[in-house]
## 1
Amino acid sequence: MSGARQQKPDLSDMRHDDWVARYLPAAWGPYARLCRLDRPVGTWLTLLPCLAALVQAAEGWPTLFRLFIFSLGALLMRGVGCTINDIFDRDIDSKVERTRFRPLTSGQLSLKNALWFLFGQFVVCGLLLFAVNEYSRWLAVLLVPIVIVYPLCKRFTYWPQIVLGIGFNWGMLMAWSDTQNIVPLAAIAMWVGAVLWQVGYDSIYAYVDVRDDLKLGVKSTAMRFGEHGKLWISGFYVATVLLWLYTGIALHLSWAYFLVLAVITAHLAWQMWVFSLSRPDRNFMLFRSNMTVGVLLIVASLGGTLIN
């Protein structure tokens, strides 16, 4: 890759000319960026599989109240995860091209204020527990240590994306526990499929940072896969599709689910066709394209439950 190509794309995950800068008071901006309100892709990737699980658990349309609670929960818990991540990684982020402008790293926000903000987010999340059943409350409590430990995983394992996938998609299990007070094997298979899907697409994202990570001694699946990334990620995507196929069969979903699942499979195959180890800017695009997979998963679930 030429030096000119390396310098072209701006891979920073912070923007200083976006809606946060234009519309929020200056004092609020660092907090909004700390919980990634300015980067909604992660929130959508948390929420969309959860909504698909809600549809499957409800065998059709979930209640508006449950949709609201789980949507708010996805937004808040993703913000909690990002805040914890930036607190632990504040020294590392200053040395990584993509993360050097984050609020704690750039000095826009003090550690003390970040901790208070984290506490406030946990309080609001705690209030949401009153809106779900007891089974789901215990599942929510189990999620907390997963969210806290994730940023530390990259220091001792090449597989932090697995922990991230478990936490990101935890709402799928809660969707079943709150709707039906059970989490059947088919729902667990759907969740495991989502975890493996996330390991795949987050590994694509990890290739953006791999050079910085090597210098810092930070681990990721991208470093584990190396030049064989396309083969590894393809394997995770194949496993995802097979698990989602099993879920459709086990839940007796209609032909519409399997039709849309075929479209999802084609999209994931397209990702692997386009994926390139030498094009980090393209990898960002592929990472974002997984929102399409999430939307298709909801469409598949609706079609599978509502169409005979």
## 2
Amino acid sequence: MAGQPSFFDLSDRYEALSAAGDPLERLAAVVDFEVFRGPLVAALRRSVRGKGGRPPFDPVLMFKILLLQALYSLSDEATEFQIKDRLSFQRFLGLGLDGTVPDATTVWLFRERLVKAKAIDRLFARFDAALTERGYLAMGGQIIDATVVPAPKQRNTEAEKMAIKEGRVPEDWKPAKIRQKDRDARWSVKYTKAKVKEGADPKAAKPVDLAIPMFGYKNHIGIDRVHGLIRTWDASAANAHDGARLPEVVSKDNTGSGVWADTAYRSKKNEAFLAKGMFTSHIHQKKPPRRPMPERIARANAKRSAVRSAVEHVFAGQKHRMGLVVRTIGIARARIKIGMANLAYNFQRLAWLEGRTAPA
């Protein structure tokens, strides 16, 4: 009968994980998670505990669990199981094989307290300050964009949809049903421009543009051009107009004046806002209605695209590697989900930047 694993057995397993390139080990070495303790304690506002009962879990430990959820797209139940099952998770959290693992309900309650305290903005700002302290200043201008974050589709009647759009709760909805219905997420349409392949027969039928309906929320971000780190962000329903969020996501702390964005952000109001703030607009110009795009504007837009395309790497990382979706109900919970994804991206980006500059 096999005995309990010894200290040396565990050490050998840790060495094997490290040799395989455990990304969580690299993350723990690069990110000082203690910088979040102050904002977490302030947000939780723990009262003086009486005698008896189990002591609360460390807030930094719980925050790191939320990070694991963001990195691996885990539900609360799956998170509890994976921590118990995966040695890399246990090492990242500082838990031994005999350590107590927070259950799914504890994780949910911790996140709910952060939601009620609206803590995600302070946590994001604290890490941005830590980046600046380490020399990663926002430099070279900024790139602005937004993407839809999917949420579970709602099956509502036309009357229910009308009531939700008007900001009302359908009359026949009981409290239990209300808790399961997301009344903040919205539908949006994503258009994909069809491209004609080089050398295609000019007489052949041209490919058709696609309009893809999507339901959920939007992640609006601004990254700095030099480091590619997310510096500003906001969350909204999926039907929110990208251009209207420009003032919220443009940072005044960037050392460069340039602002890059696609045509959705081009408007007289936004151009006036940028000019007033001493920013240099590199927003794509729109095609004239019912006329071909002038060649000089097309060339200028192509140069802007070469810079602006960097922001697509952020969304690709969040959607493909992290599997970012919103499974919770309401904009307040969606906001902390999206905010944690933005923090998780910055942690990974910092690890990459540090690895690039590390001596060979």
## 3
Amino acid sequence: MNTQTSVLLLIALAVPAYAYADDIAMDDQSQILTGAGEPASSRYFQPPQESELPDNAYGKLVQEGRAIFVDTKNRAPEYVGNGLACANCHLEQGRKANSAPLWAAYTMYPAYRKKNNKVNSYAERLQGCFQFSMNGKAPEADGPVIAALSAYSYWLATGAPTGQELPGRAYPEVPKPEGGYDLAKGEKVYAAQCAVCHGQNGEGQKSGEDYVFPPLWGADSFNWGAGMHRINTAAAFIKENMPLGKGGSLSDEDAWHVAAFMNSHERPQDPRLIDGSVEKTRDKYHANDGVNLYGEIVNGTMLGKGL
């Protein structure tokens, strides 16, 4: 779907979100623009294999980047505030086409982004994922975590054209159902197709202290600023990739219904919270940010208050 994280971040647990909201550089957390995907039968760019890595300092940095990418919480714990890893949203270690692969993202930066009205570096893009999808704080742009992840991304993009939007870059767009999404139908789809891995209450599944399957809502999931909080983005990810190993098996409508059900639950606050107000934050950041339920009343409760 934050990735992800992707996805996908509290700057300091002891400080209220509104105290540091103004310090966050990333106003726009669109994980990926939908619409760039191609049918699964198309030919995609093929990143290099690990066996091709040189046995030198560069190869070691790439390996460290891959380790952070797949085990983010343990390899970069000071920057992660939930139970997710980058590989939860960017599948197959960031290689999978139509799952926001790193090889298709790296070559598109620096890039101007309309929503925050600035040219973003690739490092800034990675920092945003930690702040929102990982519900943590941004690593230093010139620090070892960003250096390793950038090296891993650069290596996966070996031979890819620069500045060209490659097929498979996006989560392919899924049209919204004519009658809109239905939370009750989504709950049924979730129970039948998702709960076996992600738990009856979206809590995920652990082996020891680590998640085998990530939590989809609740305190240990991505926050309200992550791109995956948008129902349209989540529907695109789900349609293409879920259930795991059976991507494409859900109908477009069911993908929308279950994405809406997932995102109709509370999760950590958007760290850009303005003056402690969900309403103000929605007006500035969410009102025109795809289809989402931040600040909306669902089952008698306003979503977006955070956990």
## 4
Amino acid sequence: MLIVYPDADPQFKKLLTDELLNPLQFAEIRVYEGRPETQEEFVNRVKDADGILLGWSIPNEVIAKCPKLKIISFTGIGASNFIDLKFAASRGITVTNTPGYADNSVAEHALALMFSLAKNINRNHQNVTRGIWDQSNMIMEIKGKTIGLIGLGGIGQRMAELCKVLGMNVICWTFNPNKERALKLGVTFTSLEMLLEQSDFVSLHLPLTEETRKLLGERELSLMKREAYLINTSRAELIDTISLVEFLSSSRIAGAGIDVFDEEPILENNPLLSTSNVVLSPHIAFNTPEASKEIFIIAINNLVQFFNGINQNIVI
């Protein structure tokens, strides 16, 4: 049996210790560093594979030339953005992902963006380094403020826990609200409109689907308080960026903390770059040593369980 990791990032390759790979000792393992430069090279790397540990995307033309391939274990959550799931299914190939690997790291990053906005860290840092001693602008206390979480999966739940420790009032909108979850997590479920109207901070924690694409547009953003902040560590496409920039530029909302962008790396003409009341980071919320190790633990276990006849973390 052959398992191939065809596109290992050099940083991630260092994490693949013997200890992590030990559960796959029943198979031959081939690890290639860097993404294949041509489709032909890609085919040569994976054509004999029974299983693929995938870090990036794989073209259908490559999958079609893998007659033995039974499973693609994707090291991430949004497998549908990198793999044609319907095509894979038509070839009898199972696709799995790694839910929960970065719940804590992403929630912590969202919290860091919230603090940076509330305490005006960026502007105060820039002022001090330029010799400007300006204490005229008050900063915000977090305790007692209301945070509205849009989505309550693993990351949203961790965010709720952290915010409650800070003494915040946590309200939430989700597709699947129920009393048991509300009581367990100590949150209040509400409508999306009410959440936007009441929150001092709005933080998104949803996957990108056709239902969630541009969930927040001009109408939704208009419901937010002028002094409220928006935080997005999920997917850029959840928000209509043009409307967001308009609301930020006109101070119709106070600011935004953004870790995800419509095109990545961010383009030079992205209007968010010329907006003063934002804190931006390069889609890095997931990138901690702990989360990187966890992603491989889950992805490798998906392979092990599959070849033991057990399906887990299958992407539908």
